[in-house]
Specification:
Elements: H1 3-10, H2 18-34, H3 42-49, H4 53-64, H5 68-85, H6 90-96, H7 102-113, H8 117-135
Length: 140
């Protein structure tokens, strides 16, 4: 998942000045390059953005209505959804998006999406089967 598209969806400002756009691009690059690192810290995010953790938190809350930690978590879960739609096993997805623990991944996924990753994967597979069935035309 492209982080810039993710951040633009999360962005609450319609018209951003060039400084804000630059900040968003830096954040997107950081997310794309680090979301799968299970040792990622908000401090690392702040260093990349050339600001204090407090400044990063204020800017993140102002722009996205999410803390930097929540922004990272939400990006990980959005990336996980893409992988789950591709049929990748949940245990593999949890590692690919930066979680050391499958159970922690599952609880974060459920917290953000409202359903477990297994339920998400199964419902997505069922939707594909339903679409395939409805696309078949029977000539009588």
């Amino acid at each position: 998942m492209k982080a810039i598209a993710f951040l633009n969806r999360e962005l609450t400002l319609i018209h951003a000045d060039s400084g804000t756009r630059l900040c968003i691009h830096k954040a997107a690059k950081f997310l794309e390059n680090n979301f799968d690192n299970n040792e990622i810290r908000v401090k690392d995010f702040a260093v990349c953005m050339h600001m204090s953790e407090r400044s990063l938190r204020r800017k993140s809350m102002r722009l996205f209505k999410l803390s930097p930690f929540d922004l990272i978590e939400k990006y990980r879960i959005q990336s996980a959804k893409i992988l789950l739609r591709k049929g990748i096993p949940v245990s593999d997805v949890s590692i690919l998006v930066g979680y050391c623990s499958h159970s922690h991944f599952s609880s974060q996924f459920k917290k953000i999406e409202g359903i477990s990753p297994i339920t998400f994967k199964l419902s997505n597979a069922l939707n594909h089967v339903t679409q395939d069935i409805t696309s078949i035309q029977v000539d009588c």
